[in-house]
Design brief:
Layout (H helix, E strand, L loop, with lengths): L2 E3 L4 E3 L4 E19 L11 E2 L5 E2 L2 E2 L5 E9 L9 E7 L17 E6 L4 E6 L8 E10 L2 E11 L2 H8 L5 H14 L74 H4 L49 H43 L7 H39 L27 E8 L8 E6 L6 E4 L12 H22 L5 E6 L6 H10 L9 H24 L14 E9 L5 H13 L5 E7 L12 H6 L1 E3 L4 E6 L4 E7 L8 H13 L5
Parallel strand pairs: 1-10, 15-18, 15-19, 16-17, 17-18
Antiparallel strand pairs: 2-12, 3-4, 3-7, 3-8, 3-9, 5-6, 6-7, 8-11, 9-10, 11-12, 13-14, 13-21, 20-21
Helix pairs in contact: 1-2, 4-5, 6-7, 6-11, 8-9
Length: about 675
């Protein structure tokens, strides 16, 4: 829930590790000053600017740009610092605007490390000013707050710094402007030279923004300030049990013709460059692998994507692998379709001439057409195999390096599990693959917090021919739901995620045993119609209460003892035990719950609910359908693929789930007293 501030308004900060994201439309200089209780800067060493971008507890951009991401760790600031001012200034001497009155109002947002906005402020009312203090983060009675300031200075940086008590204001302002004008520091270093075979699309997608070029966010829109989105975020068209359900692409897909109409030059590979891929911000990590030998692909490195942390780099790298696999497969399919079409036309031309239908001439023409078809297909397959080999090599180094939230259950990282202190960027729900890439699967990462509920389909799928027993399929579906719920509990800090279970007939008792026996559930699974009604009443009342608090502007005034943790409701055996009122409440939770931290995970067969008719169609469409067995149901309208989804389950005989949940339960006990 974001607080939209007006000038002078403040808002409490619940976390100390933050980002300040700035979107200005035109290149601006971003910096920060530290000041004491009297609001005075003690020296130039208390000013972070492009020439000196790093101070204890904060880091700013290294050049003027239209978009910035400033990093703050308030606990790491010097103890005498009581205020951090975020300042913006128009660069001088570069031929750009000289006053804020002729540019779009800068937008500033304070976010957590997961990208969730805490507070935002649009700096309006500026005219002749060329420098402005946009926000200040200040300490009050041991807690940190953010205040929208919007104080402009017509005299530029020199006047701003002098107003904060810096004696060397004029000299420092001059050195900052000179550094920016000469381009002494760049936010993003130019990528190292790559060979033709090693020119990966996500490293050559775009250059860094120039002096008058706004940063294009991952969705290709100027001024985007959100971090790169996962390919698994945005809800897609939700169909039936055998149709595409969740679009595994997080950004608006480009014109598919850009992918399905590749061009190849003699001796070169297909160019899979995606116009929306960006590597301009944040800065990439330093290279850790030796340079590739001439003519050979570069050795893959885990975390070679952009990002402020290794987790973000790995997240973006997985997203890049997904895009690369989608594009190279689309190019291969397009090439095969072209070869098929060309052969059909050549054969039709042969058959249309009565003189060439029979005899040696016709046979030779047909053989020539088939030979050309085979040659084209072989060339396309060779290009696909080359790209797949590179992706497989990258997967082999990325998979072992993935953090806990992104890792499979058989990854050794789970054996060193400790309850985390922060919410991760995303959560792994399974693996995605395509028929052409049997050796390669891409982790399916879902951004946190959840934006839509999950539906674990225990009905017949297109790939469960070997599972004749419907009861076995239901058990697998419930095991999958428990594995997902356990992973959510494990990656959230203690006390920040709560799971409720509705199991009206008790049929899921064996699958739910890891949750019930470990003690991570606050209350036992609800059974019977009365249990269903009690849980649904409690959660719908919670949604109503939070919504009223938000609408009334009193989101910080919830009742004492109110559980502010994210809530997950697992529903098994739907619609058993549900009456019409309970069904209506369930639909309400699916529609309104995610916005206020109440999420739904249903384990159900859609055919079992057929008696309700079209009443439940909106419910199914609002959920991301997953399957307990591998199934090709995830639609990708970007390039027209149907991705095969396979859940990540705990290996048979492994005790890792019980060990992880035992630690989660132990960490939750102090929170539940």
């Amino acid at each position: 829930m974001t607080a939209e501030l007006v000038r002078g308004q403040n808002h409490p900060l619940s976390q100390v590790r933050l980002e300040v994201r700035i979107s200005a439309g035109k290149p601006v200089v971003a910096g920060a000053t530290l000041s004491d209780e009297q609001g005075k800067i003690r020296g130039v060493e208390w000013v972070a600017h492009p020439g000196a971008p790093t101070l204890p507890g904060l880091e700013v951009s290294k050049q003027a740009a239209a978009d910035h991401r400033l990093a703050f760790d308030l606990d790491a600031l010097p103890e005498h610092v009581h205020r951090v001012s975020v300042l913006l200034a128009l660069p001088s001497g570069v031929g750009g605007p000289v006053r804020f009155g002729v540019v779009a109002a800068p937008f500033v947002a304070v976010t957590g490390l997961d990208g969730a906005e805490v507070a935002s402020y649009t700096v309006t009312g500026l005219d002749a000013e060329s420098a402005v203090v946009a926000l200040e983060l200040y300490r009050r009675q041991g807690a940190w707050k953010v205040r929208a300031v919007g104080q402009g200075y017509a005299g530029g940086l020199a006047e701003l710094l002098a107003d904060q008590g810096l004696p060397e204001a004029q000299q420092l302002a001059g050195s900052i402007n000179e550094a920016v004008a000469r381009g002494m520091a760049r936010t993003v270093a130019a990528p190292p030279p790559r060979t033709a075979d090693a020119d990966r699309s996500r490293q050559a997608a775009s250059s860094a923004p120039g002096a008058d070029q706004p940063y294009l966010g991952p969705q290709g829109a100027p001024g985007t300030v959100t971090p790169p989105q996962s390919p698994y975020d945005t809800p897609g068209p939700q169909g039936g049990a055998t149709q595409g359900q969740g679009y595994p692409g997080g950004a608006t897909p480009p014109d598919p013709s850009a992918v399905t109409q590749p061009s190849a030059s003699a001796g070169g590979g297909i160019d899979y460059t995606h116009p929306g891929r960006q590597t301009a911000a944040p800065p990439p990590p330093p290279p850790t692998a030796p340079p590739a030998e001439p003519g050979r692909p570069a050795q893959p490195v885990a975390g070679d994507a952009t990002g402020w942390s290794m987790d973000e780099r790995l997240y973006n790298q997985v997203w890049g692998m997904f895009e690369d696999l989608a594009r190279t497969t689309a190019a291969y399919r397009s090439a095969v379709d072209f070869a098929d079409s060309r052969m059909e036309k050549e054969l039709d031309r042969v058959l249309s001439d009565p003189r060439s239908r029979i005899g040696g001439q016709g046979d030779a023409a047909r053989e020539a057409a088939r030979a050309r078809h085979a040659q084209l297909v072989d060339q396309a397959r060779a290009a696909l195999d080359r790209d797949l080999a590179q992706l497989v090599a990258e997967s082999e180094v990325v998979e072992p390096a993935l953090p806990m939230a992104y890792a499979r259950w058989d990854n050794p990282v789970w054996h060193g599990y400790r309850v985390p202190m922060e919410i991760p960027m995303a959560l792994r729900l399974g693996d995605l693959s395509l028929p052409e890439s049997e050796r390669l699967s891409i982790p399916m990462l879902l951004r946190l917090p959840l934006e839509r509920g999950l539906w674990i389909d225990c009905g017949r799928t297109s790939a469960d021919g070997g599972l004749a027993d419907a009861d076995e399929l239901r058990r697998l579906a419930m095991d999958t739901a428990v594995a997902h719920a356990a992973r959510l509990l494990a990656v959230y800090p203690a006390g920040e995620f709560t799971v409720h279970v509705i199991d009206p007939a008790g049929s899921g008792a064996s699958s739910l045993a890891p949750l019930t026996q470990s003690g991570v559930l606050d209350v036992p699974p609800a059974v019977g119609a009365a249990g269903v009604s009690e849980v649904l009443d409690r959660l719908t009342q919670r949604v109503d209460l939070v919504q009223m608090a938000i609408r009334g502007g009193a989101s910080d005034s919830l009742p004492p003892g109110f559980d502010t943790a994210e809530q997950l409701l697992i529903v098994n055996d739907f619609p058993h035990g549900f009456d019409d009122r309970a069904v209506t409440q369930l639909r309400y939770l699916a529609d309104e719950g995610p916005a206020v931290g109440v999420h739904l995970m249903m384990v159900a067969d859609r055919e079992d609910a057929a008696a309700y008719g079209p009443l439940l169609d909106p419910l199914w469409r609002s959920l991301l359908r997953l399957t307990p067995v591998a199934d090709d149901h995830l639609a990708d309208p970007w390039v027209g693929h149907a991705w095969t989804y396979e859940p990540t389950l705990v290996p048979s005989g492994s005790q890792v789930l019980q060990q992880v949940l035992a630690q989660v339960a132990a960490a939750r006990r102090p929170w539940n007293r």
